[in-house]
Amino acid sequence: MAGVKFEQAMARLEAIVGELEKGDLPLDESLKIFEEGIRLSKNCLKVLEEAEKKVEVLVQDKNGKKQLRAFTSEDLDLKDSRGEP
């Protein structure tokens, strides 16, 4: 599981959700793929948490001095409100 790339894990999670939503699998098979999905989701969460720690943005303070600070969800909100992609 450690060698699975984030995108591959997400694609497999989507497939698992689709299979479970159909509801036509036997219980034991449903449990098996549900457990796989849990492992994949934990792996994805770990990757996202590590990426979040690495992300920083360059900003200016009131005095025009540039400083590094942690990237937050507020940065996304500001970007959206300015009409940027």
Task: Give a quick set of tags describing it.
single chain; mainly alpha; 2 domains; two-stranded antiparallel sheet; 3 helices
Structural write-up:
- The chain has a two-stranded antiparallel ribbon.
- Strand 1 (56-60) and strand 2 form a beta hairpin.
- It has 3 helices and 2 strands; from the N terminus they run ααββα.
- Helix 1 runs antiparallel to helix 2 (27-54).
- It starts with 5 loop residues before the first helix and ends with a helix.
- The chain is mainly alpha-helical and 85 residues long.
- The chain is elongated.
- The longest helix is centred in the middle third of the chain and has 28 residues, at 27-54.
- The chain folds into 2 domains: 6-53, no CATH class; 55-85, no CATH class.
Listing every helix as H and every strand as E from the N terminus to the C terminus, the arrangement reads: HHEEH
Number of domains: 2
Euclidean distance between termini CA atoms = 33 Å
SS class: mainly alpha
Residue-averaged pLDDT, rounded? 81
Q: Indicate the proportion of strand residues.
A: 5-15%
Strand order in the largest sheet: 1-2
Largest sheet: 2 strands, antiparallel
Number of alpha- plus pi-helical segments: 3
Describe the oligomeric state of these chains in a short phrase. Answer: single chain
Strand tally = 2
- Helix content percent band: 55-70%
Principal-axes geometry comes out as elongated
Low-pLDDT stretches are none
